[in-house]
Amino acid sequence: MKLQEYLKNIKSMSDEKADLISTYFIQKSFTKETLLIQEGKTSKNSYFLESGIIRCYIIDLNGNEVTTRFFSAPDFLNDYLSFFEQKPSEENYELLTDCVLYSISYDNVQHCFHTIPEFREWGRMLLTLNYTFVNKKMISLYKETAQERYLNLEKTNPEIIEKVPLHIIASYLGITKFSLSRIRKEIQELS
Q1: Domain named Cyclic nucleotide-binding: which ranges (predicted)?
Q2: Which of 80, 36, 30, 79 is nearest to 50 (CA)?
Q3: Enclosing H/E stretch for 128
């Protein structure tokens, strides 16, 4: 899905405004394993993911990579705290596949917020969706079993189950890759 189409799907945005906003974005292609945003560096751009899969991860106290989130096309992504506060990121954003992205600079985001009311409303919607996702994920870690979390991921993002290595999915679910293998085996036996 192209950027303009994604913007036009928002009910409060006209074709004209979506086309105008898209002029502030630059299309770029990146290869698998690229670090789009790096821990300790300030996020200078916000992104629309046209194709591919990206994961966010941190390094825990034991030196292990812990996946905190996935993005799969089409989606908008950024380390919102780093970007809007212009502070160093606490996470890494790694491309798990080759990706096509559209980037918009911090200055252009600010310009659009101040001059295009539809962009401001759209930005508010993105922040609300991001908060909702983070809140639901936090609650699911305490109220759902690992199997339920896996099945929810499979239902909502089957492309992640198909294309992402198991150890990364296990990290996201808060379990070991051995536990994930057992869960997948149990699910297959029930099918």
Answers
A1: 9-111
A2: 30
A3: helix 117-143
Distance between CA 119 and CA 29 in Å, rounded? 24
Residue 106: which residues within 8 A CB-CB, separation 6 or more?
A: 44, 45, 46, 83, 86
129 versus 95: the higher-pLDDT residue is 95
Give the span between the Cα atoms of 178 and 134, in whole angstroms. 26
Count CA atoms within 13 Å of residue 58 on its CB side: 10
Predicted TM-score (pTM) of this structure: 0.91
3-state secondary structure 18-85: HHHHHCCCEEEEECCCCEEECCCCECCEEEEEEECEEEEEEECCCCCEEEEEEEECCEEECCHHHHHH
Q: What type of residue sits at position 119?
A: F
Sheet holding 45-51, edge to edge: 26-30, 99-105, 45-51, 75-77
Lowest mean pLDDT among 6-10, 91-95, 140-144, 157-161: 6-10
* C-alpha span between 33 and 31 (Å, rounded): 6
